[in-house]
């Protein structure tokens, strides 16, 4: 009888802790400078590969007429188009990664008043400005691994959003116990 009463009291305390009377910041990790530098690097790489593609397309034309019988000498335009396309593809992939990675790195997680919804803030594309902040019901958020089990980043899945959001372990967990029972809990989505 006493064990059942203790279990009910613990459950009531857990329920009270999970429904805060005001907004509570659970996780915070400001890395704006890092993402701006990474974005600058990605933009620079994009410009470099675009210039190389332009140079390959305009200046590296095969010489007209018969030439020496060198197997490395390009005899038609296929190699030029292929090299140009390869450079543009590589540059585009680097810029896309620089745009998408900061959008998946979580800047702040806030448990909203009442504990039924969570606000997730990310960094902006290429690290420029603040990224989007969106509010989702807590039941649509699932932490795929406990924070003590992962070495670098906590994967967070949000229902209806592709890919995972990443919470860097170097960030500040302001309320670790509350994080574990709300956002840090595993849920079937």
Output the number of helix runs. 4
What is the typical, i.e. mean, pLDDT?
A: 86
Helix content: 40-55%
Main pleated-sheet profile: 5 strands, antiparallel
Topology order in helix (H) and strand (E) letters: HEHHEEEEEEEH
Record field, number of beta strands: 8
Terminal Cα span: 36 Å
- Percent strand equals 15-25%
- Alpha carbon gyration radius: 25 Å
SS-based class: alpha+beta
Report the principal-axis shape: elongated
Taking strands numbered 1, 2, ... along the chain, how are they ordered across the largest sheet? 4-3-2-1-8
Uncertain regions spanning at least 5 consecutive residues: none
Please outline what is shown here.
This protein has 189 residues and is an alpha+beta fold. It has helices spanning 2-18, 32-59, 78-104, 176-181, and strands at residues 24-28, 106-111, 117-123, 130-137, 141-143, 153-158, 165-168, 172-173. Helices cover 41% and strands 22% of the residues.
Tell me what you see in this structure.
It contains four helices and eight strands; from the N terminus they run αβααβββββββα. The chain has 189 residues and is of the alpha+beta class. A five-stranded antiparallel β-sheet has the order 4-3-2-1-8. A three-stranded antiparallel β-sheet has the order 5-6-7, with no helix packed on it. A hairpin with a 6-residue loop joins strand 6 and strand 7. Helix 2 (32-59) packs antiparallel against helix 3 (78-104). It is elongated and about 100 Å long.
Helix and strand topology:
Blueprint: H1 2-18, E1 24-28, H2 32-59, H3 78-104, E2 106-111, E3 117-123, E4 130-137, E5 141-143, E6 153-158, E7 165-168, E8 172-173, H4 176-181
Helix pairs in contact: 2-3
């Amino acid at each position: 009888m006493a064990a059942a009463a203790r279990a009910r009291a613990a459950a009531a305390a857990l329920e009270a802790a999970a429904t805060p009377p005001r907004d509570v910041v659970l996780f915070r990790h400001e890395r704006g400078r890092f993402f701006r530098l990474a974005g600058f690097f990605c933009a620079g790489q994009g410009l470099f590969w675009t210039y190389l593609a332009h140079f390959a397309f305009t200046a590296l034309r095969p010489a007209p007429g018969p030439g020496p019988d060198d197997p490395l000498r390009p005899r038609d335009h296929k190699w030029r188009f292929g090299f140009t396309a390869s450079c543009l593809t590589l540059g585009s992939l680097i810029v896309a990664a620089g745009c998408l990675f900061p959008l998946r790195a979580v800047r702040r997680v806030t448990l909203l008043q009442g504990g039924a919804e969570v606000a997730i803030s990310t960094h902006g594309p290429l690290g420029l400005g603040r990224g989007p902040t969106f509010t989702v019901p807590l039941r649509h958020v699932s932490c795929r691994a406990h924070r003590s089990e992962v070495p670098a980043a906590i994967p967070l899945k949000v229902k209806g959003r592709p890919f995972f959001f990443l919470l860097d372990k170097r960030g500040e967990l302001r309320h670790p116990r509350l994080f574990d029972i709300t956002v840090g809990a595993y849920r079937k989505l």
